From TrEMBL, chains A, B:
Residue ranges of every copy of the Transcription regulator PadR C-terminal domain listed in the record: 89-179
Source organism (scientific name): Paenibacillus typhae
Family annotation (Pfam families): PadR, Vir_act_alpha_C
Protein name (Swiss-Prot/TrEMBL): DNA-binding transcriptional regulator, PadR family
Residues covered by the Transcription regulator PadR N-terminal domain: 8-77
MF-aspect GO terms: DNA binding
Keywords: DNA-binding
DNA sequence: CGTGACATGTAACGCGTTACATGATTAA
DNA sequence: TTAATCATGTAACGCGTTACATGTCACG
């Protein structure tokens, strides 16, 4: 049981999902491809933390819908209360900033601008997810459980939004610093 | 040549360093242990991007001081102008936030508080690094090269500072949200 | 007629962490 | 005397990415 395994359990507490849906749904939380996820689902099923139901489909490939078991919920519960390890950030840009003086000022600016545009599109994506989450609550947010899972998603998405905004602010500031240190002609 | 290899080259453009010093110095930029770094130094030396000088010491173990070569600088230069891959963030807290409703409100708050305290200590560490960087410039910041490398470090450290501040703000906000949704007795 | 979504899996390889290995000096 | 700093290396294992593998339907 590694971190990703617990993450899959976390997603399954909200509702039953297929491996394919888990692969899509985990994207804003953790970077993982389907080739990592399918084997973990198999091993968690052997451990009794999840179980699956096979759905035969004629138009699309058959699928397996995974549901978390009572045992799965209780191991997740124990894990959640354990202190969280420090976040690990791996960003090439750190090294590129460090050696920025090796490039032309124009190229340095372009580097930051590309990152800023990517961050802006990510921010937009998170805002859409927040709206979808709120809509879910408005439509059928009656049970205590749905309110609770929606709240968790809300916290998480706000975390991502705040980080993205900070990153965009950094890019804007750094581009300004670059222009101050080598003003463009004109 | 992976990202970490270019990162080591980046550090070596500022001044010659030992593998040990590189292991320490890379910490704010990338997570990597010495067992990753020593083999990369050997392979980069075979490629001709760096070279080393052995220093014999009587009180401490002997050391190897690595210097970047002209060829090393030129491959780094080419790499820096390439677009930076999106940053990868791996944070257990994402999953724990998502399943926060499985814990007692007190434990949920403690989870966020621990992270906030860690972030605050990181912020302090970065502020010290910024001061050290500025001091370096004041003391002997005459050459154009030193000014340039100091500038790169400055940008990078500001990036980390802004990210940490955003993360601290998130924790404060999230603790507030938790208190609002389940007020403490009294 | 090709691309993308749906859907699940395995294999190979590279990257990252932990542990093993050695050994002197210095401060608590 | 125990831990920490300096200093370099290897080995084993686990995690993450890319590629291989298969097949249908819908849309442009």
């Amino acid at each position: 049981m590694n971190t990703l395994s617990y993450g899959l359990l976390a997603l399954l507490t909200a509702n039953p999902l297929t491996g394919y849906e888990l692969t899509q749904g985990i994207k804003p939380l953790w970077r993982a491809g389907h080739s990592q996820i399918y084997p973990l689902l198999q091993s968690m099923e052997e451990k009794g933390f999840i179980r699956h139901e096979r759905i035969e489909q004629s138009d699309k490939p058959d699928k397996k819908i995974y549901t978390i078991t009572e045992e799965g919920i209780s191991v997740l519960q124990e894990w959640v209360r354990l202190p969280a390890e420090p976040a690990v950030l791996r960003d090439e840009l750190h090294f590129k900033l460090y050696s920025l003086w090796l490039t032309e000022p124009d190229e340095a600016k372009a580097l930051l601008q590309r990152r800023m545009e990517f961050n802006r599109s990510e921010l937009q994506r998170y805002n859409l997810l927040i709206k979808a989450n709120e809509a879910l609550l408005d439509e059928r947010g009656e049970t205590r459980e749905l309110k609770a899972t929606t709240f968790g998603r809300y916290l998480l998405l706000q975390k991502r939004v705040m980080a993205m905004k900070a990153s965009i602010e950094f890019c804007e500031w750094a581009i300004g610093e670059l222009e101050r240190s080598s003003p463009p002609p004109g």
